[in-house]
Amino acid sequence: MKGIRQLADHLDISIGTVSRALNGKPDVNEETRRRVLAAAEELGYVANQSGRSLRQGETKVIGLMIASSKETVENADNFFLGVTSGLQSVFARHKLDLIMLPCPNDEDPHEYLKRMVARRIVDAMIISETQRIDRRIDLLSRAKIPFITLGRSLSASNATWIDLDFEGVAKRAVERLIARGHRRIAITVPSSEINLGYIFVEGYRHALEQHGIPFDPSLVIRVKSSEQGGYQAAHELLLLEERPTAVILIYELMAIGLYRRLMESGVMPGRDLAVIGFRDAPRSRFLQPSLTCFRMSLHDLGVKLGRMLLANMPAYAEFYSGDGRNTIWPLELVPGESDVFQVAVKA
Amino acid sequence: MKGIRQLADHLDISIGTVSRALNGKPDVNEETRRRVLAAAEELGYVANQSGRSLRQGETKVIGLMIASSKETVENADNFFLGVTSGLQSVFARHKLDLIMLPCPNDEDPHEYLKRMVARRIVDAMIISETQRIDRRIDLLSRAKIPFITLGRSLSASNATWIDLDFEGVAKRAVERLIARGHRRIAITVPSSEINLGYIFVEGYRHALEQHGIPFDPSLVIRVKSSEQGGYQAAHELLLLEERPTAVILIYELMAIGLYRRLMESGVMPGRDLAVIGFRDAPRSRFLQPSLTCFRMSLHDLGVKLGRMLLANMPAYAEFYSGDGRNTIWPLELVPGESDVFQVAVKA
DNA sequence: CTGAAAGCGCTTACAG
DNA sequence: CTGAAAGCGCTTACAG
């Protein structure tokens, strides 16, 4: 099947009528519509997207940009694939397709995005892994492409964003540890300029100060968000003069490496050092002792993300009037055995 | 910047010349070309892809279809993101972009692919997770779209495929275990109809028979390829009348759950039961005892996959004449401590 | 309810 | 070396 012309010739009607029938326009004879639909199905005709896009000025495709950096590959733990299902469940209602745009790791994300946007392959974009300063946001604003960011950014004053509740997680983790007598609480942050690290530390710092515990920069450990990073973090913890009694990890997979390094030194996680992780992932579910961490539904996050994006697109905004605001996505604490012990209070 | 028309008006030349200049055609005055390039850069002009595609009959986009099923999300372990970097390094040479097409889990993969193909969003397709019988292959053949499958299939007689060396892995694992005295060797296979499970078992069976060990169907354990599946597999192993002394896992993450279940019963992996995993992933690198498994470079696999695909595309075939053949991708054994002990040979 | 025609943004023979 | 024009496959006012 070549195109609408062939289909029209085959049915001996005009291409205009074929188009109207296929697109569900009301002013088509029902019998005609049936014939068109049947023939399209039989001959496997589907409208060429380039033709449609050119005429309509829209592609019905939404792009999700992901940085396929080595870091992301090791860490993302299928975070994006998880979010995808939620996004698609929203987009499907409007016959919008989702495509994932992996930015090559040797290409500048800003240049990559610029190219994708200019080519008009998508009608709207979702960007993620927002940096503290993220020029992509200015780019999208200027291009007047509807977009949303998964992650806050200092550049995001003219963007709508959704982000995980990093402050809330840091705060709850700190308070939970303080309640068990901890005073020296370490925290790990990513070594990159990704914005979430800054927010995480701010939440941590604020929670400490609320409880009268001074912030000690030596307890903030910058490592990669990977098992190797966890191993490294444990190594650094063990070298600290006054060893902390607890550590909060920004990424749960780090716990695997952290446990390993601790055990090598005879330090038992959950007995000698309290550990709280961030997001619970299937991988870490079998850790021993089980990891106290925070859970969320990636599917639900995807749904909200999708709704928020559509709220920013004129053609769909009416259906999602309640979804236009910036959102902090809550996480639920999953208690484990890695932080159950009490610290003896010093006399 | 609206389109080529604006840019041409701005430069006071015709759109034809602008197009030729931008596309590097030889018959353009160098000074003119410089002016056009500079103006395009300044005004941020990039050709609208729909216009190009419509005219040229190609999109310069390659699609990688992935099933975003719950299983894949939990298991894929960023396999696809890893392969992506290799693919892109090949495609970049020809200014081809890669997009990932995640099939919604409530949509039939065949229907999804049909839609994507018919819309002509991509010039060529890569499909993965091939099933034993996979109608997508017939669909792509009939649509005359260049494609390649990551994974063999019984349907693949008219397709070019690349696949991991499942037989080789099964064979080497079996032989390694036999050399250490094992006779009762269990194997896990996926519970789905994905073809690799069949190939894995065939390799296992063949290796056993070569060494005069009869194939025992009760040692083939069908479970999900996840940590939970590993847990379940261990559970079933422990229930077997004559307990096997070794197990080969088709997916390395299963080892986490398997270890856990074994330890709950006081069975020590690497001492009471030999374990060999499949692909080595960052997640399992910290297992104790360390897992004997097989390694490969996802990047290199992606490169080969990209080359093979281009070898099947008329426009690029000349550069990849040596890459057209079906390929079995080798894996390298990474010895660990999970299978080091010898089994006492029965008198 | 249907057909004929315009035009979306490009690229590319064709003329000059 | 450049311009004018055709046409890729659609959708959509417009006329009837």
Write a structural description.
With 347 residues, the first copy, chain A, is of the alpha/beta class. The first copy, chain A, has three domains: 4-47, Orthogonal Bundle (434 Repressor (Amino-terminal Domain)); 61-159 and 298-330, Response regulator (Rossmann fold); 166-296, 3-Layer(aba) Sandwich (Rossmann fold), CATH 3.40.50. Helices cover 41% and strands 16% of the residues of chain A. Chain A has 13 helices and twelve strands. Chain A has helices spanning 4-11, 15-22, 30-43, 49-56, 70-75, 79-91, 109-118, 135-143, 166-179, 195-210, 227-239, 254-264, 298-311; strands at 61-67, 97-103, 124-128, 147-150, 161-164, 185-190, 220-223, 246-248, 274-279, 292-295, 327-329, 332-334. A six-stranded parallel β-sheet of chain A has the order 2-1-3-4-5-11, with helices on both faces. A six-stranded mixed β-sheet of chain A has the order 7-6-8-9-10-12, with helices on both faces. In chain A, strand 6 (185-190), helix 10 (195-210) and strand 7 form a beta-alpha-beta unit. In chain A, helix 2 packs across helix 3 (30-43) and helix 7 (109-118) runs parallel beside helix 8. The N and C termini of chain A lie far apart (85 Å). The interface between A and B is large, with 59 and 60 residues. The structure holds a DNA duplex (16 and 16 nucleotides). Chains A, B: Residues 2-56 form the HTH lacI-type domain. Chains A, B: Pfam families: LacI (PF00356), Peripla_BP_3 (PF13377). Chains A, B: This is DNA-binding LacI/PurR family transcriptional regulator. Chains A, B: Keywords: DNA-binding, Transcription, Transcription regulation.
